[in-house]
């Protein structure tokens, strides 16, 4: 084996790569702190990791992408002519115009798609209320509360669809408008704040997911405002627009389930599910250009991030000259083609994160619950001292896209003996969702591989051995 192949298959330790990056930075006369990535975590100065959303560039990009999304939907609210840069949606006279002529074919297509969304609601609601959610939503009390409120608001809005049509055709526009007011109260009061809070910890390629979620949330708020100000003649049309935007997530779950069923595109499964869900629902709801604007929001987000990503490397335009061993790891790349040169990680967060212990795959079926929990506990106890410290807990949360600061809140809830760390018994009882999730991931991957093996062997082929990310039902 030649030296290049050896470097690629056995990358140098993190400290070696960080030292190489730091030396290259110093050679160019800069003192900026290098940033290296492993999966979803970011490391600065070879010390501790940070979630993507904690970067200044990410926060700046969120503000810019949100402003772009609001601008787009403000322009849509005013039609072709923009009366003022911003005004309350209830005062936009252009929103109260009579609806454009819609063919019966298009109207029925929207109704059929809305009916499909309603059927998907039964599965989505049952899954979220009866099945355990990802542990990142339950390890901290504040996130548990937000998640429950978000599930409640989503469920109420799903029930609002049948209620709207029953009111419209049974009691007339006045009764249907009362349902719309109730839906708007739930949407603006619970659903929008919850969506904005949860999008900061998105899975997948976060530099696509976060702006995609931002744009979808802006479109959702726009469709709610449009529904509140709709005329009687436009009421059903605007309700269908709101209903279809609301069900971007249902479309995502459908696509995700299909990709998981056939074990397709495992490494990009969640990201593709969201993009395909947006591509299905948004054009049907707000016109074909709505998805194009969503893509623009993603581009704007990334341009803003690259322009403000000074903590990821140098602000000089020439790319850093990294040694071959560092380039072979593909953990960093130059962004000088778009903006300031920067060392940027592959901002990708998997549902599994750091929690899945490899030993589970070999012995998961024969182990007791405590033995399974012990394997996961030992995986997280990187220091080997028999406890999970706040720093080690922070590494797990960051690998799930959560801010490191959540580790202190989680530790305060779980650390019953106030030792400053989590012992095994505390982990087994108080953090059961964490190790149970790790076991569920292994079981899910094993069942998928067994099913594919049966299919391939029945056709005379050989079964591949592949474990993809994002394939767990809890993702």
UniProtKB/TrEMBL annotation:
Source species, domain of life: Eukaryota
SUPFAM superfamilies xrefs: EF-hand
Residues covered by the EF-hand domain: 368-403
GO molecular function: calcium ion binding
Transmembrane segment boundaries: 60-81, 112-131, 151-169, 175-198, 205-222, 242-262, 274-307
Pfam family, one: EF-hand_7
Keywords from the UniProt entry: Calcium, Membrane, Transmembrane, Transmembrane helix
Designated name of the protein: EF-hand domain-containing protein
């Amino acid at each position: 084996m030649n030296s290049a192949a050896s470097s690629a298959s056995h990358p140098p330790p993190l400290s070696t790569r960080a030292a190489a990056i730091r030396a290259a930075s110093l050679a160019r006369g800069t003192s900026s702190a290098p940033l290296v990535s492993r999966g979803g975590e970011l490391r600065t100065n070879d010390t501790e990791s940070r979630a993507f959303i904690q970067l200044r560039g990410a926060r700046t990009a969120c503000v810019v992408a949100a402003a772009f999304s609001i601008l787009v939907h403000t322009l849509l609210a005013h039609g072709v002519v923009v009366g003022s840069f911003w005004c309350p949606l209830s005062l936009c006279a252009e929103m109260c115009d009579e609806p454009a002529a819609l063919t019966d074919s298009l109207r029925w297509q929207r109704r059929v798609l809305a009916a499909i969304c309603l059927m998907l609601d039964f599965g989505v609601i049952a899954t979220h209320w009866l099945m355990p959610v990802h542990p990142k939503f339950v390890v901290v009390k504040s996130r548990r509360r937000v998640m429950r409120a978000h599930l409640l608001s989503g469920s109420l809005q799903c029930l609002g669809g049948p209620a709207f049509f029953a009111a419209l055709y049974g009691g007339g526009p006045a009764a249907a408008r009362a349902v719309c007011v109730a839906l708007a109260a739930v949407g603006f009061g619970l659903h929008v704040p919850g969506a904005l809070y949860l999008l900061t910890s998105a899975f997948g390629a976060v530099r696509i997911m976060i702006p995609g979620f931002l744009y979808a949330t802006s479109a959702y708020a726009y469709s709610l405002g449009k529904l509140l100000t709709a005329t009687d003649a436009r009421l059903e049309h605007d309700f269908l627009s709101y209903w279809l935007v609301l069900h971007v997530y249902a479309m995502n779950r459908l696509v995700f389930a299909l990709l998981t069923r056939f074990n397709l595109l495992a490494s990009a499964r969640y990201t593709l599910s969201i993009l395909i869900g947006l591509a299905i629902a948004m054009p049907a709801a707000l016109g074909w250009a709505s998805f194009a604007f969503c893509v623009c929001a993603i581009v704007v987000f990334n341009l803003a991030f690259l322009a403000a990503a000074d903590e990821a490397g140098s602000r000089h335009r020439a790319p850093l000259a990294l040694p071959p061993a560092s380039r072979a790891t593909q953990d960093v790349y130059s962004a000088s083609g778009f903006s300031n040169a920067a060392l940027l990680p592959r901002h990708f967060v998997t549902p599994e994160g750091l929690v899945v212990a490899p030993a589970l795959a070999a012995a998961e079926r024969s182990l007791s619950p405590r033995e399974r929990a012990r394997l996961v506990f030992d995986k997280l106890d990187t220091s080997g001292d028999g406890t999970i410290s706040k720093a080690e807990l922070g590494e797990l949360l960051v690998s799930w896209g959560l801010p490191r600061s959540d580790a202190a809140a989680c530790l305060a809830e779980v650390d019953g003996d106030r030792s400053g760390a989590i012992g095994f018994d505390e982990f087994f009882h108080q953090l059961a969702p964490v190790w149970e999730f790790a076991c569920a991931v292994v079981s899910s991957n094993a069942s998928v591989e067994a099913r594919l093996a049966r299919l391939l062997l029945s056709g005379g082929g050989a079964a591949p051995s592949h474990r993809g990310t994002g394939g767990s039902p809890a993702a």
